């Protein structure tokens, strides 16, 4: 990407990060349901229950399909592959690079799986706690990510332009 | 492989989808088998696509050089 695009994107991210951090940019909330429209929560709850039931059953084919969908390359993976291809390393090193990248990419599945084997109850509790923490700190996380990425892009673009 | 490569790999690892999958699988009656299947599916697709990309690019580059 050119330095100008990086600078524009960096400044935009800094602005969004600052707005989210100061609480001036809120996520849109659901409009309240008017009274007397029956039971609007019921179908939603039933839908949720059916999903939970579906995923509570040990469906190995479905699990494999979900894994395969998650394994479809994203932007970071394609950029990593581009680095590998353009590097002057040997074929063996490139193959090791691909395997390492995929293993690192799936660490969020590999680590809980390993801990599930060692300490099942503690792993369940840790996963539930981490979900609660992420949900309660989502705004701060978004703000910090935007600010850090924005600062990095702005500084690197300014260095290149200077 | 350089620092940028590993930075990209760890960025790809910070995927909220995977955390959501963890939470769904942990509630399953056979979580170990489900985790293993997700891993198998994901790693197989990831490595296959990666190897195809790297090796096809390599062969295309060597063909271009010969010309």
Observed structural traits:
heterodimer, A: 162 residues, mainly alpha, 78% helix, extended, B: 67 residues, 87% helix, elongated
Characterize the structure shown.
The complex is a heterodimer of chains A (162) and B (67). By secondary structure, chain A is mainly α. Helices cover 78% and strands 0% of the residues of chain A. Chain A has eight helices and no strands. Chain A has helices spanning 3-21, 41-56, 60-71, 75-86, 91-105, 107-118, 120-136, 138-161. In chain A, α1 runs antiparallel to α8. The longest helix of chain A has 24 residues, at 138-161. Chain A is extended and about 60 Å long. The model of chain A has no long low-confidence stretch (mean pLDDT 80). Chain B has three helices and no strands. Helices cover 87% and strands 0% of the residues of chain B. Chain B has 67 residues and is mostly helical. Chain B has helices at 3-13, 16-26, 31-66. Chain B is elongated. Chains A and B meet through α2, α3, α4, α5 and α6 of A and α1, α2 and α3 of B.
Lay out the secondary structure:
The complex is a heterodimer of chains A (162) and B (67).
Chain A: H1 3-21, H2 41-56, H3 60-71, H4 75-86, H5 91-105, H6 107-118, H7 120-136, H8 138-161
Helix pairs in contact in A: 1-8, 4-5, 6-7
Chain B: H1 3-13, H2 16-26, H3 31-66
